[in-house]
Amino acid sequence: MTDEIDAKTFWKAQGCRAIGVAIVTAKGVDGPAGFLALSATHFSASPPMMMVSIGLTTSALAAVRHGNHFAINYVPKGAEAMVKEFGGGGSLKGADRFLPGAWAELKTGAPTLVDSVGVIDCRLDELIERHGTIIALGRVVAFTASTKDPLISFRGGYI
Per-residue b/e over 67-99, b at no fewer than 16 CB within 10 Å? Predict the structure, then answer.
């Protein structure tokens, strides 16, 4: 008997929590890069820090390392097509997902979604590797907020 669940069951369990959909972005040597964040949360308030989990095989990891930054972009309702692109299910790849006029920058140089619910811009503080995943800790240096409604991930779908 095992005392842990398998990966498929783990993701089903994670689907029980309603969370705001986020795209993590950075600017690397090859330009802007990003991925759909499956885990992005606060780490501490003093100092103000965020934590993002990045799979070792995620292509945007190189941009986070090179740029020494990342931005967490909270996606508004109605942006499911963008989420599909950054989740790897669309036809656009790499920098082609960053449509002109849809992205700006705050302090770090990481791409920030103009039409976001909010953005948290972080300077990379530390990378920790565990079980095929990088835990990126970033110090919050800027943020934006809007009154837009968020796209929420819940039970494998969006609400």
Answer: bebbbbbbbbeebeebbebbeeeeeeeeeebbe
Question: Residue written as tokens 């398998």?
Answer: 6
Residue 90 CA neighbour count, 13 Å, CB half: 16
Among residues 152, 133, 23, the alpha carbon closest in space to that of 87 is found at 23
pLDDT given at position 154: 93
3-state secondary structure (DSSP) of residue 89? coil
Q: Look up the domain containing 123 and give its range.
A: 20-147
Residue 10 lies in a domain: no
Q: Classify residue 157: in a domain, yes or no.
A: no
**CATH classification of the domain holding 26:** 2.30.110.10
How many domains does the chain contain in total? 1
What value, to the nearest 5°, has the Cα angle with vertex 48 and ends 45 and 51?
95
- The predicted-structure confidence for 79-103, as pLDDT tens digits, reads as follows 999 999 999 999 999 999 999 999 9
Is 0.90 surpassed by the pTM of this model?
A: yes
Domain-embedded: residue 153? no
What percentage of the chain has pLDDT greater than the value 70? 99
Q: Is residue 141 part of a domain?
A: yes
User: How many CA atoms lie within 13 Å of 29's alpha carbon, on the beta-carbon side?
Assistant: 5
